[in-house]
């Protein structure tokens, strides 16, 4: 967005807005500059809308709101489709400001002189070609790199270039041993089938051919050098190696002194030939290194020559345009401004295209987050249901055990007790429980109403403080009395918050006190010592019965 902001600010300066030179992006535009730019553009696009508006932002708050609201209405009447209001000019974000200014700059009238007559000759053809190329590139929509065709890759860059990868090749040779010729005739694979990938065949052939040419030139240069001809005849290295092999094959174990001396002489000659061959290889490597250096220097010279040729062509074109420099500069400026406005227009189109996509992306992300939250909630509910089912099963087992125990106790109870008495007692207990539930429900309703009233008062208090804080903060920078009032308001708000927290803590402590008192009353009314005495007596009686039963079992 930096280039778009620069072009946008340049267009605003051309429209008459006094944008300082240090401002280079929309983020640095102040509300005063945004209002001035909007008014200047409105006056240039439709004078009837911009003439009644002032390009200077007034100092009063009400006057600022009035001017910003009128500007928003004028932009809507001009056809701006986005959300615009007084906040767009006074408290706007960078994105909203850029959208609004792009819309206004795109609406600016274009000069008729942009499409004037082009200069004749080569300069006119060059300008036409440049214009056609620019129109082609500007008319081509942007495509992600992975979706580009080869033509788009060449046009928009990031083309998939193949690296220059080679591999060694085995080429057939004439002459040599019969085994080698037999290998080249039937066993050796064809040259195109030797590289592991089909794309490596041309680089491998080029490299092999270059190596052969370099070796041939270096060998010819070495043979023509001083001092080498008397020692090494000008022949092919393959023939030399064959001679060395033949000399090695003639080395046989000596049968007499003459044969031994002849073998020693042959060995000495072979050693000399091998040393000479090694020296030739060293010279060959040195020549290859020199050749590489010379090639690098030639490439560097060609690059410098190309730069000089480009500079010469540029100067020749400048000399062609020099006789009519003013007109050519004016036309070039018109072309540049047209391209800039075209870029601004494209940026505006991109913003309009980006808005729905961004909204759709946010909507899809919200749906994804909602689905994730729903799945997490269902997973938590499933786990809670599983825990409750386990707890219910445990409770069922406990109740079954208790039911069996109660059935046994019921069988042991005497049958002369009236059932109506138990039924009456049960009905009385149910009635008491119903009354307690009704009283608890009333208390809960009163508590909810009280909590709702407290929440409403707290929200009203926070909104009142926010509005008062905003009003006092705006005037606190200019008035000392308002500044003191703002400090007192902040202190009052903090003290009130602390007082509310204290009251809440006091209520919490009082509830805890009541709970503790109820627990104390329950423990006191439970008569734990008596209960413990009864439990101990029952335990002793149970032990005695067990002992009696054990004695009867032993006697039986």
Could you please describe the fold and organization of this structure?
This protein has 556 residues and is mainly α. It has a domain at 2-109: Actin-binding Protein, T-fimbrin, domain 1, CATH 1.10.418. The chain contains 16 helices and no strands. The chain has helices at 2-14, 31-45, 47-50, 61-78, 86-90, 94-106, 121-139, 150-156, 178-187, 201-223, 237-249, 257-321, 325-412, 419-476, 480-526, 528-555. Helix 2 packs parallel to helix 6 (94-106) and helix 10 (201-223) crosses helix 12 (257-321). The longest helix is centred in the middle third of the chain and has 88 residues, at 325-412. It is flat, with a radius of gyration of 51 Å.
Task: List strands and helices in order, with pairings.
Layout: H1 2-14, H2 31-45, H3 47-50, H4 61-78, H5 86-90, H6 94-106, H7 121-139, H8 150-156, H9 178-187, H10 201-223, H11 237-249, H12 257-321, H13 325-412, H14 419-476, H15 480-526, H16 528-555
Keywords:
flat; single chain; Actin-binding Protein, T-fimbrin, domain 1; mainly alpha; 556 residues; 77% helix
Q: What is the name of the CATH class of the domain at 2-109? A: Mainly Alpha
Shape: flat
Largest sheet: none
Radius of gyration: 51 Å
Helix/strand-derived class?
Answer: mainly alpha
Distance between the termini: 105 Å
Low-pLDDT regions: 112-118, 225-255
Mean pLDDT: 76
What is the H/E string? HHHHHHHHHHHHHHHH
Number of strands: 0
Number of helices: 16
